[in-house]
Amino acid sequence: MKNMSYAEHVAQTILGQLGSQRFVVMTGAKNLAYFDDNGECGLCFQLPSYFAKNNINIVRIKLTFADDYTVTFYSKQGSRIAQISEREGIYCDQLQWLFTRETGLYTRL
């Protein structure tokens, strides 16, 4: 078994909470990457352009020190990146619901 960093482990856990590979297939998510912002780790990924509502094509999910998530939705058009919305205090069982509400994309059949 590969030794994962804490940030990688957190990102894998978030992906699992979203629906794992089914989520990737259903949404077209790509370029999945983990990050570490001074101990607050998470998952960031891109969606196909003009696929989600409000032209959302970047999603960033961060596990906070309070053991909940901050989810930020962005729209990148050319070199311009605009934050569409940010939701704090999200629990793991709310991730799929929030993603669908903000993007209009379903995470499962």
What does this structure look like?
This is YahA protein. Keywords: Plasmid. The chain has helices spanning 6-18, 20-27, 95-103, and strands spanning 30-37, 40-46, 58-63, 69-77, 80-90. The protein is of the alpha+beta class. It has a five-stranded antiparallel beta sheet with strand order 1-2-3-4-5, covered by helices on one side.
Silhouette: globular
- The ordered string of helix (H) and strand (E) elements is HHEEEEEH
Structural class: alpha+beta
Strand order of the biggest β-sheet: 1-2-3-4-5
* Tally of distinct domains: 1
Give unreliable regions as ranges: none
Q: Strand count, sense and closure of the main sheet? A: 5 strands, antiparallel
What percentage of amino acids are in beta strands? 35-45%
Name the helicity range.
Answer: 25-40%
Distance between the termini: 31 Å
List how many beta strands DSSP finds.
5
What average pLDDT do the residues reach? 95
User: Count of DSSP helices?
Assistant: 3
Measured on Cα atoms, how large is the radius of gyration?
13 Å
